[in-house]
Design a protein that fits this description.
- It is found in: Cytoplasm.
- GO terms for molecular function: glycerol-1-phosphate dehydrogenase (NAD+) activity; glycerol-1-phosphate dehydrogenase (NADP+) activity; metal ion binding.
- Its cofactor is Zn(2+).
- This protein has helices at about 20-25, 75-85, 125-130, 135-160, 165-185, 190-210, 220-235, 240-260, 265-275, 285, 290-300, 315-325, and strands at about 10, 30-35, 50, 65-70, 90-95, 105, 115, 120-125.
- The protein is an alpha/beta fold and about 325 residues long.
- The strands form two sheets. A six-stranded parallel sheet has the order 1-8-5-4-2-3. A two-stranded antiparallel sheet has the order 6-7.
């Protein structure tokens, strides 16, 4: 198994100005930039550009030697997917910090997500990221706290099902989340955007090292994917973000772990406080969902994919409602 982790990771003010230097160091001369309409303004380079939502209708020539994703989750994921299909390197240039896809090998254009290749370089300009919508930066916190329950679920699967488990990847991922939670709860948040993007990059690298999404995706992600499925099934007009949904899921799933392990007492409250501090949703109402949708999502989450978590074989409607009520989600 070949594990690809970034050869260059630049996280600082003005980082985007070092893109051409990184390309030169990697001996890449003819990249294609994949971006969005709102993020094209950051692409001040003399390279070909394509919008991520037009790629399926574009004739991508095979003469490019790399793909650069500039923008949010969709631009990064689409660029990553294209690079993987063409068998060429991918460079991640995030303009916000809403999820760990900016550094992970995972492509989540649609479910189920799948493993592609991790970026060969990550260039995160913290000046640009700081100016991105506050809501996206709040959602990023939800994706990071997910690491807590993801690792607890992973260890549970190791104990109960004998699943392959990497202690080093698990500790790395969990530590990233704990350090960001501690920073958020004990600071004035002046450096939040910078700390967040570093945490998201670290989380993505943990996934690449483990060659699995296990270090950063567990029962809380299953809950989020279940909400996405219900949005589509019932044609719900709810614009909640992935990280926001994962954050609320983490509150509930950490509570389930607490009930089985007294050493974790108070964990879900600490997670909830950290989410509140950055103005991320912690309730169904704040997410925009009716209570019954939250309950239904909890009852179907275990079926989303073949992954053993604290949900095990599933929750009944009564158990799901009790969980949501006891954690204050509904």
């Amino acid at each position: 198994m070949i594990i690809i982790t970034p050869r260059y990771t630049i996280i600082e003010d003005g980082a985007i100005n070092k893109l051409e230097e990184v390309l030169k160091n990697l001996n890449l001369k003819n990249p294609l930039i994949v971006t969005g309409r709102n993020t094209k303004k950051y692409c001040k380079f003399s390279y070909d550009i394509v919008y991520y939502d037009e790629i399926l209708n574009s004739q991508i020539r095979f003469e490019y030697d790399s793909i650069i994703g500039v923008g949010g989750g969709k631009a990064i994921d689409t660029g990553k997917y294209l690079a993987y299909k063409l068998g060429i390197p991918f460079i991640s240039v995030p303009t916000t910090a809403s999820n760990d896809g900016i550094a992970s090998p995972i492509v989540s254009i649609k479910q189920p997500s799948f493993m592609a290749s991790a970026p060969i370089a990550i260039i995160a300009d913290t000046e640009i990221i700081k100016k991105s919508p506050k809501r996206l930066l709040s959602a990023g916190m939800g994706d990071i706290v997910s690491n807590i329950t993801a690792v607890l679920d992973w260890k549970l699967a190791y104990k109960e099902k004998g699943e392959r488990y990497s202690e080093s990847s698990a500790i790395f991922s969990k530590t990233i989340a704990k350090e960001l939670i501690s920073y958020v709860l004990n600071s004035d948040l002046l450096e939040y955007h910078s700390k967040l993007v570093k945490a998201l990059v670290g989380s993505g690298i943990a996934i690449a090292i483990a060659n699995s999404s296990r270090p950063a995706s567990g029962s809380e992600h299953l809950f989020s994917h279940a909400l996405d499925r219900l949005k589509e099934e019932y044609n719900l007009n709810v614009n909640s973000l992935h990280g926001e949904q994962c954050g609320v899921g983490t509150i509930m799933m950490s509570y389930l772990h607490e009930k089985e392990n007294k050493k974790l007492s108070g964990l879900h409250e600490k997670i909830k406080m950290s989410l509140k501090k950055v103005n991320a949703p912690t309730t169904a109402k704040e997410l925009g969902f009716d209570e019954d949708i939250i309950v239904e999502a909890l009852t179907i989450a275990h079926k989303i994919r073949d992954r053993w978590t604290i949900l095990r074989t599933g929750l009944s409607r009564e158990e799901a409602r009790k969980l949501a009520e006891e954690t204050g989600v509904i």
